[in-house]
Automatic annotation (TrEMBL):
Transmembrane segments: none annotated. Its cofactor is FAD. InterPro entries: FAD/NAD-binding_dom (IPR023753), NADH-Q_oxidoreductase (IPR051169), Pyridine_nucleo_diS_OxRdtase_N (IPR017584). Residues 4-293 form the FAD/NAD(P)-binding domain. Keywords: FAD, Flavoprotein, Oxidoreductase. The keyword Oxidoreductase applies. The keyword Phosphoprotein does not apply. It comes from the Bacteria. It comes from Falsiroseomonas oleicola. This is FAD-dependent oxidoreductase.
Length: 360
């Protein structure tokens, strides 16, 4: 029986599995190879940190989802892909053969560029390891504890605010040279700045971090920032093992895909989500992985039946919602800015709706 191997239990693959459960493809065997039996939904993670959700509300039970579509589940870490032999190597077991491969393994933290970050900072990515790591910080928390969150994109801002709600700690958000919420409209950035000030989250911007050491974050030409805990929320990097696969990659190491989400030059390998590099490059945001899910599911089915896949057309703008961790949120779309309790209500409704699709 031909074999479809799904590598990584990310946001696009949970949709592939859901659709496979609803409409199985006779004559095909499906396996999911992923690291964790619970796949976290990133949109709700800051809410979990703030105590607005229980952890299980933000986790998709991969074991149950694969069982619903009669797929096999291998819990392991992929360490390599051999496209010629159609094989995936893994950390703890025999290689897995496939006829059709789809990769949705996300991104890794960008800790390699700053000395000491890998040793002394706690990265937000991969998100499947985030909650267990944060538990350590919660456990050791004490009044006045100094926490630095490095990286002031959407995830960094949401996590800093969530920690400020959850802990009696002195929190600093390190925005670096690009400032608070780069790429967001000015009015939203100002409102987020006000929300941080109201929660007594200090903001450091203007200088990039040059080194992370035990107990401190260092800058070039600016005083060091003492911090017992450092959370690393800067951009995403590609997993190093992708370099060995021989698959085409962009300048940052992510897998180049064509218009139909196929790995360039490989008709039987697909990639979606953060791991994939589409066109001139899409933001590394879960919303793209989610929107690619249905196209990926349709294309895997088409290729399995010997038919042509269809192109994926990314949306030009997308709704960006930021939880302020206090029952309100900020949002932006097509240049409009909005905020308040109803925006949190909307975000909560969308996030819970997403989870309901996969939690059975
Ligand atoms: C705190 C936080 C909040 C965020 N909030 C938002 C938000 O509100 N909206 C938004 O659009 N984006 C948000 N993001 C970004 C979002 O998390 C990512 O863009 C999204 O998770 C990418 O989805 P993905 O499917 O590509 O990969 P992931 O969700 O990262 O999933 C990858 C999967 O692959 C598995 N895996 C990885 N490597 C291997 C391997 N070698 N072998 C086997 N399995 C492997 C992992 O276990 C995981 O199951 C947030 C990020 C963070 C850190």
């Amino acid at each position: 029986m031909p074999h479809l191997l799904l590598l990584g239990g990310g946001h696009a693959h949970v949709e592939v599995l859901r659709q496979w459960a609803a409409h199985p493809l006779p004559g095909w065997r499906v396996t999911l190879l992923t690291r964790e039996w619970m796949s976290p939904y990133s949109g709700m993670l800051p809410g979990v940190i703030a105590g607005l959700y229980q952890p299980e509300e933000a986790l998709i039970d991969i074991t149950a989802l694969t069982a619903r579509c009669n797929a096999a589940l291998i819990l392991d870490r992929a360490t390599g892909i051999d496209p010629r032999r159609r094989r995936v190597q893994r950390a703890q077991g025999a290689d897995v053969d496939w006829d059709l491969l789809s990769i949705d393994t996300g991104a890794t933290p960008d800790v390699g560029r700053v000395p000491g970050a890998a040793e002394h900072a706690l990265p937000l990515k991969p998100i499947d390891a985030l909650l267990p790591r944060l538990r350590g910080i919660f456990h050791e928390a004490h009044p006045g504890q100094r926490i630095a969150v490095v990286g002031a994109g959407a995830a960094g801002v949401e996590v800093a605010l969530a920690l400020a709600v959850r802990l009696d700690a002195a929190i600093t958000l390190v925005a670096g040279a690009s400032g608070l919420l780069p790429g967001f409209p000015g009015r939203l950035r100002r409102r987020a700045g006000q929300a941080l000030a109201a929660r007594k989250v200090a903001l450091r911007s203007g200088r990039n971090v040059t080194e992370v050491a035990q107990g401190a974050v260092h800058f070039d030409g600016a005083p060091s920032l003492p911090a017992e805990s450092v959370i690393w929320a800067t951009g995403a990097a590609a997993a190093p093992w992708l370099a060995e696969t021989g698959l085409a990659r962009d300048a940052r190491g992510f897998l180049r895909v064509d218009a139909c989400l196929r790995a360039e030059g490989h008709s039987h390998i697909f990639a979606a989500g953060d791991v994939a590099s589409f066109g001139a490059g899409l933001p590394k945001a879960g919303v793209f992985a989610v929107r690619q899910g249905p196209v990926l599911a349709a294309n895997l089915r088409a290729v399995a039946r010997g038919r042509a896949p269809r192109p994926y057309r990314p949306q030009r703008d997308y709704l960006r919602l930021l939880s302020l961790a206090d029952g309100t949120a900020l949002g932006t779309r097509n240049g409009l800015i909005f905020g308040g309790r109803w925006v949190w209500w909307l975000k909560d409704r969308l996030d819970r709706g997403f989870m309901a699709r996969y939690q059975g």
